[in-house]
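assembly run, all chains below
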Amino acid sequence: MSEPLDSGTPRDTLSRRSFLKGAGTVAAAGGVLGHPAHGEAPAAPDQDGPETIEGTVEVELNINGETVQVEVEPRTTLLSALRHRLQPPLTGSKEVCDRGDCGACTVSIDGKPAYSCLQLAVDLKGKEIRTIEGLGTPERMSPVQDAFCEHDASMCGFCTPGFVMATTVCLEKHPDADLDKIKHEISGNLCRCGTYPHIFTAALDARDRMREDR
Amino acid sequence: MTCIAYHRPTSLGAALELAAENPDARFIAGGTDLLVKLRKRVHASPAALISLRRIDELARVEVGECLRIGAAVPLADLAVNEHVRERLPALTDALATFGSRQIRNVATLGGNLGNASPGSDAAPPLLVHDARLELRSTSGVREIPLAEFFRGPGETALGAGEIVTAILVDGPSEGAVSVFFRKSRVSMDIAIASVAVLLEVDGTRCTKARVAAGAVAPTPLRLEAAEAALEGTALDEAACAAAVASVDAAIAPISDVRAEEWYRRHVTAVLLRRALMRLAGSTAAVPTGGGGVS
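ok done. output:
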């Protein structure tokens, strides 16, 4: 029997709803927590969690400055945990290719951009995770969010959260980035609508605004 | 298989024992290839995954006579490592455009080589630097030249329960220079062709030449005829032209969605010509003029 690795994306075989029903029974069948891989005890009490994980476990994640407990399986990606396991869910990070090609699910992990579809949630205890929801609010947007709005840097908008995250992390790390640097740093994000000129204009404007704020 | 077991050992010994006990298990480091392949069902879901992320000894770069790159060091760290830049300039070239920032932050050199993609951008630079791989299993440790590691697309010399633990490169020779060129349609795309060249020059004479190519044969490969055409010469125009002319017979590219076979052949020759001309500035021996680079 074969099932998708990522319980949140059963697109090949099942609807999400029917799959989630099934996933509940799977979860109930697992549940062996933290038994050491060998007869002996783990070398040191491990603050990153147990050595072996089977079935469903609760993992503590630090998301946008808040510590949350999320029930996941080893195969659950961070993207799936954000969108399908959190209560309330954080759906700003978009699920598009789900295979590390498009960048729509980009988040920041310990200050570095990451495809959340290629991160297993169980690996992320103790990491500082930032999502688009952690940047700003509609009333008080971050400089990058504001610049994307002002320069009309999205068309269908599906890639936008990923671009905003990638641009934000790029400018935080490289406050003086020029256009070539920005292009290089956000080349892992794709826009099928082709809004790149506006995205680059917005990124340069955001850079200037962030410089003024320094 | 519905629920996999996920092992996260903190020592290499424990990881290898787990692999020996669980023949169906797969190792995972950055996961940028494996998770995609599991999701696309290229591989059947394994009964267990053995994560290498907590094993410190795989995550170090050690500098001595020999540069020892732990198999699980993220590529982004290698891209800015001064020892890698100094000793393996062609690899630093390749890492600058390897995948995307998000990929480089987690992908590893051991994982890339272990996947044995014909189009690996890391392989040609390491081939021209005569890299060796350290392989380990519960049976012990062995070293193998990288050139003997690749057996076909996705096929390697790794035995059951064996992993790449380090990439080894001997100290730089005096006067050695290397460079890597690739061609793809857009960033993030797999290369249509790639070429790495290393030259050692004593005065005006080339004492050692290494040429390797990617994405133009079932495995990344050394182009030994091109090397022979360069070694012992003054790297004059005739020698460079002979090296470039030897490429066609040495490669066996396919036609696919990225490029036709004839175009890959053409691009490989152009990339070699460009690489030799780029190295001209470093060695003073390679002719800088002419050459018909398009």
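Residues 102 and 128 of chain A are 23 Å apart (CA to CA).

The domain at 73-213 of chain A is CATH 1.10.150.120 (DNA polymerase; domain 1).

not gonna interpret more than that til we talk
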